[in-house]
Design brief:
11 helices; decarboxylase; two-stranded antiparallel sheet; OMPdecase_type-2; 8-stranded parallel β-barrel; alpha/beta; RibuloseP-bd_barrel; pyrimidine biosynthesis
Length: 287
């Protein structure tokens, strides 16, 4: 089974939630840090989140900056979290947003599709051109790995460049069309290929056109939760509640902070936050 078909199946069975394990040391209760290294505290926190949510979460996303910022200790937590997900037969995204060409890109591919930091999917930045994407193609062709490439991101600064007109059309559509050509070479049984897009749900006027135009591309959808994206926008980016995963990071990781007994029930409140994410989006089905 191709990895993209497996992701489709996970969404079908568990729902479209993606839990972002963007774990800052500051998110961890003080009592959970006592007598522990940074590595141990972060990994144990992640493990509690995973154990409480794995049956309702399609895939987990680790933003690597949160681990790199703690040096070797952080990267040990990154490694061990990915290993734990693999041990439990769960899918992962390494949110690394790499952008380089030739031999350097090949080494990034090797670093994150093999070895200590191996993930099922990684995120890429395409703005150096298609030769920054092509070095990953051997992994895509194998059917065992996939990528989510930045297309229309959720941050306000996205409008600085992504919507600039070229030949009468926004730049992000030009980028998407190029990547769609690559994706179509490897479309699986689910109807989707391994080249997915990062599509923010904060751009109300564009979501329907993006979904319609890129029908064979799976979406990683940020912006819901802390960034305040409208749940209807999210629903429009999905395709019959599949074809995309909806990331929620801080809303899940910090959910326990809203309750007096939160520090003793991190997993419980994380689970409730995942279920709430799904509920908030599914309420748009009849609209």
């Amino acid at each position: 089974m191709q990895i993209i078909d497996r992701l489709y199946k996970e969404v079908e069975e568990k729902g479209f939630a993606c839990v972002g394990l963007d774990t800052s040391f500051d998110y961890i209760p003080e009592k959970n840090k006592e007598s522990k290294s940074i590595h141990e505290a972060i990994f144990d926190f992640n493990k509690e989140i995973i154990d409480a949510t794995f049956d309702i979460t399609a895939i987990y996303k680790l933003q690597i900056a949160y681990y790199e910022s703690y040096g070797i200790e952080g990267m040990l937590a990154y490694r061990d979290t990915l290993a734990y997900l693999k041990e439990k037969d769960l899918l992962s995204i390494g949110d690394i947003k790499r952008s380089d060409i030739a031999a350097s890109a090949s080494q990034y591919a090797k670093a994150h599709f093999e070895g200590d930091f191996e993930t099922d999917f990684i995120t890429l930045n395409p703005y150096m051109g298609m030769d920054s994407i092509e070095p990953y193609e051997e992994y895509l062709a194998s059917g065992k790995k996939g990528v989510f490439v930045l297309l229309r991101t959720s941050n306000p600064g996205a409008n600085d460049f992504e919507v600039l007109k070229t030949d009468g059309e926004e730049l992000f559509f030009k980028v998407g069309d190029k990547l769609q050509e690559l994706n179509e070479k490897y479309v699986g049984e689910s109807g989707y290929g391994p080249v997915g897009f990062v599509v923010g749900a904060t751009h109300t006027k564009e979501v329907e056109e993006i979904r319609k135009r890129y029908k064979n591309n799976f979406f990683l959808i940020p912006g819901f939760g802390a960034q305040g994206a409208d749940s209807l926008n999210v629903h429009k980016l999905l395709n019959d509640n599949n074809g995309g995963v909806v990331n929620n990071s801080r809303g899940v990781l910090k959910a326990y902070m809203n309750y007096e007994d939160g520090a003793d029930n991190i997993g419980k409140y994380a689970r409730e936050a995942v279920l709430k994410t799904r509920e908030d989006i599914l309420k748009n089905e009849d609209l």
